[in-house]
Design goal:
The protein has 14 helices and 14 strands. With about 400 residues, the protein is α/β, with parallel strands linked by helices. Helix 5 packs antiparallel against helix 13.
Length: about 400
């Protein structure tokens, strides 16, 4: 059993939540992940902008009425003042609320666990990164796919140099749930995810493309240099992209030629439920991972037969084993990967407070830095597509930001 799945103390950390009330998909996922290993207990929340729904949601979740808030600002102030106040807050709102909510809690000294992407706009991400740098509170971004054991295994293989110089990376994230105009039928998730005022300028590129890009960065260690993007909206009347095709250029590493990449993110790919794949090819070996078979990693040294590495199986490396809860052959998946991020967040919070002494060398939760890089990626893709897929560098975007 992994270290991550073992409680660090008898008492779980008190957790709050903003958003995620009745009918919210991602709020329920965060709550399951938070309690899976006993690290957190949900005790407060501003669960909806509608006071009646917020109260009903709190009652359903066992939150005391006095800790059910009508606004996130009120919640941050009140919880920071309580001797038994929350140690961390989970932000599970639509994208446009990530910035103001995270800002309020960081400034109150409360640790933040936020759903992706970091914010709706790049300027907000830049400001939030500055606020985070001045705060003693930690910021954890839930790019949950980084919590899969075989993604951790892939990262270790690259870090050990077993792939050699990375030459090509490729990530595809394909869904079909927005192949029809669900937003015009009042479907809640579709409505806000296709509204640029709530989701930001990027549609599919921000919603799922950000996950694909984060996986590339997490596993390969490469730093993005430039993007050439073709973003499309196939469903009539849709105001954000529902399909994205990108070429990627990365910064050179040592004397090796700069790596190249491809990324496709689509929510109109008929027949695809949630297919996320990652492929990394180097001068010595290549690897491939498929979210639909998450317990397997295909590793092929140059000139040799492909090896199928399995979670908790023969040949699994230490990075994979640290993120495993059950013996090999017993499926683990989405919720467990999400819970790994929460487990690492709990350990980091305990470490900062001096409550545990374990080394944090193996903690890889996505941070404010990762979120900011993700927002730069999205902004570069949108800018490139708006200019007929010309190459846009991240340095160009940084130069545009006010000092």
């Amino acid at each position: 059993m992994t270290q991550l799945s073992q409680p660090f103390a008898a008492q779980p950390l008190p957790l709050g939540m903003v958003g995620g009330g009745q009918g919210a998909f991602i709020g329920a996922v965060h709550r399951i992940a938070a309690r899976m290993d006993g690290h957190f207990q949900l005790v407060s929340g501003a669960l909806s902008s509608d006071a009646q729904r917020a109260a009903a949601s709190a009652a359903q979740l066992g939150i005391a009425p006095e800790r059910c808030y009508t606004s996130y600002a009120q919640m941050a102030k009140a919880e920071a003042a309580r001797p038994d106040g929350i140690r961390a807050v989970a932000i599970t709102t639509p994208n446009h609320m990530h910035f103001p909510v995270a800002k309020a809690f960081l400034q109150a000294g409360i640790h933040v666990i936020c759903d992706k992407p970091l914010t709706a706009q790049l300027a907000e991400a830049e400001e939030l990164a500055a606020i985070g740098a001045r705060s003693n509170a930690l910021f954890i971004l839930t790019h949950n796919y980084t919590g899969y054991p075989m993604i951790r295994a892939a990262r270790q293989l690259v870090a050990e140099g077993q792939l050699g110089d990375i030459r090509l990376v490729k990530a595809d994230y394909l869904q079909d749930w927005l192949a029809t105009p669900l937003e015009q039928e009042g479907q809640k998730q579709a409505s806000w995810r296709t509204d640029p005022a709530q989701t930001g300028a990027g549609g599919a590129i921000g919603d799922i493309g950000s996950h694909a890009y984060n996986l590339i960065s997490f596993v390969s260690g490469l730093q993005l240099q430039a993007v050439a993007a073709d973003l499309s909206s196939f469903v009539e009347g849709r105001r954000v992209d529902d399909n994205a095709n990108l070429l990627l250029r990365f910064k050179p590493v040592g004397s090796a030629a700069p790596a190249r990449g491809q990324l496709c993110a689509s929510q109109i790919a008929t027949g695809k439920e949630n297919q996320l794949t990652l492929k990394v090819y180097g001068s010595k070996a290549g690897l491939e991972w498929d979210h639909e078979c998450p317990d397997q990693l295909r590793f092929t040294p140059l000139g040799e037969s492909t090896r199928i590495l399995t979670r908790a199986g023969v040949g699994a490396n230490a990075a994979a084993n640290r993120a495993v809860r059950v013996p090999g052959g017993h499926p683990e998946g989405y919720l467990e990967a999400f819970a790994n991020i929460y487990a690492e967040a709990a350990l980091a919070i305990r470490q900062q407070a001096g409550e545990v002494l374990e080394a944090s060398a193996h903690q890889h939760y996505p941070s404010l830095h990762d979120g900011l890089e993700g927002m730069r990626f999205i902004a570069a893709a949108v800018r490139s597509s708006n200019q007929d897929a010309r190459w846009v560098t991240l340095a160009e975007l940084q130069a545009m930001q006010p000092a």
